[in-house]
Specification:
By secondary structure, the chain is α+β, with helices and mostly antiparallel strands. The protein contains 16 helices and 29 strands. InterPro entries: Ald_Oxase/Xan_DH_a/b, Ald_Oxase/Xan_DH_a/b_sf, Ald_Oxase/xanthine_DH-like, AldOxase/xan_DH_MoCoBD1, AldOxase/xan_DH_MoCoBD2, AldOxase/xan_DH_Mopterin-bd_sf.
């Protein structure tokens, strides 16, 4: 926990002792589900049960690329206890799906395009029977050579009817002939990070008497999932209902439908409830991952270190299917120069299909990859000019009113210089003592370092930026209803609580607006109006905005009779701590008395201002808003073994407005830690398209013991006037900045270029001449 966050919590505690628990916006209100999760009673999808339950298993391809010659399900169907087997022939409706572009089949039919692609699904009376029956499905393959190098995808035979190129964005901004006195170049590679959900991916499908089906899922976009499922099942949308069960947290893994659709098909075919709880291996094979990326950069600067031009080529590996790769590429190209003023920029961006596992939405998609590259370039520039790395950045940072390479003016608060100053000037942590008692402080832990004398300390910086909400014309809208009766408020909004704290925020908004302490948020299902997907901070902005508008409408209904009775406007009345008072003190009553047993309710929508797609030159106002984060990393590196210990990460971030201090600190710390994994350990290896070690032994997630001291040294509360409450999303920006900062610090400690993430030990070894 950061020093600042701890201070905020202490202040809250003192307030509670004096005046009782704080409520409303700005208070550290605990999450409503915190106790249930702590006690193990929270209803996750894997815990669900139904009478007459069957179990499902999915057969997945062992090959990354093959032609399917035949699928024989005879043996599987004849096994005792097996109730149904489905393949592509049993999909009655649309046979393709996709979050962004619909190009991914429910089941492979003619060609397998990636390792782990679903071919069949089985329902049986026992989970072991289902798995054995799935293994008994006989598939005859003609194995084909996989295309796993995204650079080869341009010349390879088409892997998909839509071709290998998902999208190309040529960004042109400024003078192509501009040159700088100093030029630095670099080639960078970013690995494949897995969302690695801690909770099991699971679901339950229950057939309905009307021929429809209900799906109980940890969905982050229930209405989108419903529409896709209805199309695949050949049903009307009102015949499919998604009920959101407990989401253990989502950073992309809850957005994939590789097992949800087979689950529904089996329930419809058998007429029985069907459940699937994926193994860890099935999770790795089934869901999407962060886009592996290849980046080539050339930075031009003048003799003072001011940027003149940036040239870059960005290649995203979409894997077998397009998914959200178009969105990720737009972010990568738009933010390819980072939060710096660049008068001339020429960026070529591509996303291509390969036979690698599909890529999709993960926090900071596109922006994280380019941040690692442009910050490496800034380090090279500083070294070549003999400048301090922080100073060369300070000479180029963006501010409100500057223009992105896309031609869009930055109208939101962009206090990048203030953030950089805060982390630069924050005191450095003390050096470890050269004593046996402090060996654990060295890279690798006790006995991990060869010799203390081989340890070098480095300091580096990462300046990251992300966009909030959807982009390029996405229609972001959310609907919410607030109902008040008998002193209790109820919020109905289909915004899924994925760990970002929306349920807590909704309670705080109603408490702040109506002065009612007891606020309940109704569980989410698709009988409610849509609220959209839970990513890019949209529920804080759009769904929170809808809740606020509905609450204010109820507030007006509550206050109008009183205002009319006393001959004043509702603006002259205020609600504080459950009491309604007038500006002159003439009126003083409680909310409960004013309600007088009535039921008040209102429904409202929130829709941000529209955006536009990038044009053929990569120009356009594509983003609703942006958020910025600056991180200073301090690392210790054993230059003989190449082991790295992150000592401290100092974070400064513009948050618009702090709505819940404890929750905000937790979100920043979680984002920083996810970035730590991308920097040092997390790399899902796929030699020749095969996922190697699809488990948490082979895929190294950072644990609590790996997490460094995270110091939140500054939170800039400059409200974004177009955002409800003025708040910004907080979790994605630290994910973007922290890998770049850690790599920068390792460069400072070793003098090595460090051009690949995650950082391999050999990249941090310094050999003597």
């Amino acid at each position: 926990m950061s020093n600042e966050a701890a201070t905020v919590q202490t202040a809250d505690a003192a307030t509670e002792e004096e005046t009782g628990p704080r409520r409303g916006l700005g208070a550290s209100l605990p999450a409503a589900d915190a106790r249930a999760k702590t006690e193990g009673t929270f209803p996750y999808a894997a815990d669900l049960w139904a009478e007459g339950l069957l179990w499902a298993a999915v057969l997945r391809s062992p090959h990354p690329h093959a032609r399917i010659k035949s699928i024989d399900t005879t043996h599987a169907r004849e096994m005792p206890g097996v109730r149904a087997v489905v393949t592509h022939e049993d999909v009655p409706g649309t046979s393709v799906l996709g979050r962004g572009k619909a190009d991914r089949p429910v089941f492979a039919s003619e060609v397998v395009r990636h390792h782990g692609e679903p071919l069949a699904a089985v329902a049986a009376d026992h989970p072991d029977t289902a798995r054995m029956a799935a293994a008994a499905v006989i598939v005859e393959y003609e194995v084909l050579d996989p295309v796993t190098d995204p650079e080869q995808a341009f010349e390879a035979e088409p892997l998909h009817p839509d071709g290998n190129l998902v999208r190309h964005i040529p960004l042109r901004h400024g003078d192509a002939d501009a040159v700088g006195e100093v030029v630095v170049e670099g080639l960078y590679r970013i690995g494949r990070q897995d969302p690695a959900p801690i909770g099991a991916e699971a679901g339950l499908a229950v057939p309905r008497p009307d021929g429809g089906v209900e799906l109980y899922l940890a969905s982050t976009d229930p209405h989108g999932d419903r529409d896709t499922a209805a199309a695949a099942f050949g049903l009307q949308q009102d015949q499919v209902k998604i009920v959101v069960t407990g989401v253990p947290g989502a950073t992309a893994d809850r957005e994939d439908q590789s097992f949800q659709l087979p689950l529904g098909l089996l329930a419809l075919k058998t007429g029985c409830p069907v459940k699937l709880a994926a193994t860890r291996e099935e999770s790795f094979l089934g869901h999407t991952h962060r886009h592996p990326t290849l980046l080539r950069y050339r930075h031009h600067a003048d003799a003072e270190g001011k940027l003149v031009k940036v040239e870059a080529q960005i290649l995203l590996d979409a894997g077998a299917y397009a998914g959200t790769s178009s969105d990720a590429l737009a972010a990568a190209v738009a933010f390819a120069c980072g939060p710096y003023v660049v008068p001339n920029a020429f960026i070529e961006g591509w996303a291509v299909r390969t036979n690698n596992p599909p890529s999709g939405h993960v926090r900071g998609e596109g922006a994280m990859q380019v941040c690692a590259a442009y910050e490496a370039q800034m380090d090279k520039l500083a070294k070549k000019l003999g400048l301090d790395p922080a100073e060369v950045r300070m000479r180029n940072v963006m501010a409100t009113g500057d223009v992105l390479p896309t031609g869009q003016t930055v109208t939101c608060p962009a206090p990048v210089a203030e953030l950089l100053e805060a982390v630069r000037d924050f005191p450095l942590p003390p050096l470890p003592k050269d004593t046996p008692e402090d060996e654990w402080l060295l890279p690798g832990g006790p006995e991990g370092a060869g010799e203390p004398a081989a340890v070098r300390r480095g300091v580096g910086y990462g300046l990251g930026m992300v966009h909030m909400l959807g982009a390029e014309g996405a229609d972001e809208v959310s609907t919410a209803t607030v109902r008040v009766q008998n002193g209790v408020a109820t919020v109905l909004c289909a915004a899924v609580e994925t760990g970002q704290g929306f349920s807590t925020l909704a309670r705080q908004i109603v408490q702040e607006t109506l002065g009612i302490d007891e606020v309940h948020v109704v569980p989410v299902d698709t009988d409610q109006p849509p609220a959209g997907a839970g990513c890019r901070g949209r529920h804080t902005w759009v769904s929170g905005g809808a809740v606020e508008r509905a609450a204010k409408m109820v507030r007006t209904q509550l206050l109008q009779p009183l205002a009319h009775k006393f001959g004043m406007s509702t603006e002259l009345l205020q609600i504080t701590d459950g009491k309604i008072t007038s500006y002159d003190g003439v009126l003083s009553t409680t909310v409960t008395e004013a309600m007088d047993g009535k039921e008040l309710w209102a429904t409202a929508q929130c829709r941000p201002h529209p955006t536009e797609p990038l044009d053929e030159a990569g120009q356009g106002d594509a983003f609703v808003g942006m958020a910025f984060c600056v991180i200073r990393a301090v690392v210790d590196v054993d230059i003989e073994l190449g082991s790295v210990r992150v000592v401290e990460l100092a974070v400064a971030q513009d948050v618009g407005r702090v709505l819940n201090p404890a929750q905000l600190a937790a979100r920043i710390e979680a984002g920083v830690t996810q970035g730590l994994g991308a920097a040092l350990t997390e790399n899902l290896r796929t030699p020749r398209g095969l996922i190697r070690h699809p488990d948490l032994t082979g895929y190294a997630l950072p644990t609590a013991l790996d997490a460094p001291d995270i110091r939140i040294v500054k939170l800039v509360e400059e409200r974004d006037v177009v955002a409800p409450f003025g708040a910004k999303a907080v979790s994605a920006a630290p994910v973007v900045a922290s890998p770049a900062a850690i790599a920068s610090a390792v460069r400072a400690a070793t003098g090595r270029p460090v051009n690949r993430l995650p950082i391999r030990p050999q990249a941090a070894v310094v050999t003597s001449n």
